[in-house]
């Protein structure tokens, strides 16, 4: 599938990430603006939180509260009903990227081991777990550049996109939230996975910035569907009334060492209808 069938919901934004369908709206982060934004299917949008953070990723807890990663502070923030932000967990150090919460309220947050924007030498990244009681511990290491994450509907498997190794890696989730049985879930060839989401047939959609596309793959890496775009795809999420709307956040990528990583104003929220509804988390 090419650009045909791709509809534009919102334009004029910056570096967009972390799309999450919740209730009857899509929530996403505009990293350039430091804003978490909600948009409905008519394209009406509002800012629901402001956090000065690069990256700026979010997850919904099972009790319908939103957690936001404040990367420079090394904290998980929680958006309360009155619009205030409180500390959900202290991650102990700065430098975090994506986040997913499973159906038990376990929050997985990952981070790179080094900062390419600051010119640091490469070190692999890791995954940490913040449990509902506020404790934080490392549960996985040696993910070269961890990006999007997803949890299967049975809370049994965590899938992590490793952008630098061009694959999706999976872990079994234990009763205590710990991770084991690490394995490559899908080799992606030239694919560079950023944000990911799962569907009800246990396939993963991954967004690809340099490839300017979203790709649906089976567990063995078989490509099932491709949505081609005219700009970098940073993340995707399934949602909408039937769960079959694929929301894609996209922008014109300039590079990690540029003063502005995407061309200003090129951030868009796009939609395409697909056959298989979303499942699991996010």
Task: Map the helices and strands.
Layout: E1 7-13, E2 16-22, E3 25-30, E4 35-39, E5 45-50, E6 58-60, E7 66-70, E8 75-79, E9 85-90, E10 99-101, E11 107-111, E12 125-130, E13 136-143, E14 146-151, E15 157-162, E16 167-173, E17 179-187, E18 193-198, E19 204-208, E20 213-217, E21 223-228, E22 232-239, E23 245-251, E24 267-273
Antiparallel strand pairs: 1-24, 2-3, 3-4, 4-5, 6-7, 7-8, 8-9, 10-11, 11-12, 12-13, 14-15, 15-16, 16-17, 18-19, 19-20, 20-21, 22-23, 23-24
Can you walk through the features of this model?
The structure is a single chain. With 282 residues, this protein is mostly beta strands. It has a single domain (7-273), classed as TolB, C-terminal domain (Neuraminidase), CATH 2.120.10.30. It contains no helices and 24 strands. It has strands spanning 7-13, 16-22, 25-30, 35-39, 45-50, 58-60, 66-70, 75-79, 85-90, 99-101, 107-111, 125-130, 136-143, 146-151, 157-162, 167-173, 179-187, 193-198, 204-208, 213-217, 223-228, 232-239, 245-251, 267-273. It has a 4-stranded antiparallel beta sheet with strand order 1-24-23-22, with no helix packed on it. It has a 4-stranded antiparallel beta sheet with strand order 2-3-4-5, with no helix packed on it. The protein starts with 6 loop residues before the first strand and ends in a 9-residue tail after the last strand. The model has no long low-confidence stretch (mean pLDDT 94).
């Amino acid at each position: 599938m090419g650009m045909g069938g791709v509809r534009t919901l919102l334009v004029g934004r910056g570096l967009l990430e972390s799309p999450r369908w919740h209730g009857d709206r899509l929530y996403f982060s505009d990293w350039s603006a430091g804003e978490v934004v909600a948009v409905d299917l008519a394209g009406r949008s509002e800012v629901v939180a402001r956090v000065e953070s690069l990256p700026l990723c979010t997850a919904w807890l099972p009790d319908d509260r939103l957690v936001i990663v404040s990367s420079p502070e090394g904290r998980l923030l929680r958006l309360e009903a009155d619009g205030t932000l409180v500390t959900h967990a202290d991650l102990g150090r700065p430098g975090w990227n994506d986040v997913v919460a499973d159906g038990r309220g376990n929050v997985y947050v990952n981070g790179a081991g080094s900062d390419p924007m600051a010119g640091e030498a490469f070190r692999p990244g890791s995954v940490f777990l913040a449990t509902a009681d506020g404790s934080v511990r490392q549960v996985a290491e040696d993910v070269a550049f961890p990006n999007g994450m997803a949890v299967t509907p049975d809370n049994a498997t965590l899938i992590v996109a490793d952008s630098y190794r061009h694959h999706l890696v999976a872990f079994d989730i234990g009763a205590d939230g710990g991770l084991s049985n690490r394995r490559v879930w899908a080799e992606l060839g030239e694919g560079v996975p950023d944000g990911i989401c799962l569907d009800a047939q246990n396939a993963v959609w991954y967004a690809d910035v340099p490839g300017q596309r979203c790709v649906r793959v089976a567990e063995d890496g078989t490509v099932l569907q491709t949505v081609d775009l005219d700009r970098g795809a940073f993340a995707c999420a399934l949602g909408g009334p039937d769960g079959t709307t694929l929301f894609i956040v996209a922008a014109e990528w300039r590079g990690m060492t540029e003063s502005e990583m995407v061309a200003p104003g090129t951030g868009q929220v796009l939609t395409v209808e697909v056959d298989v509804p979303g499942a699991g988390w996010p």
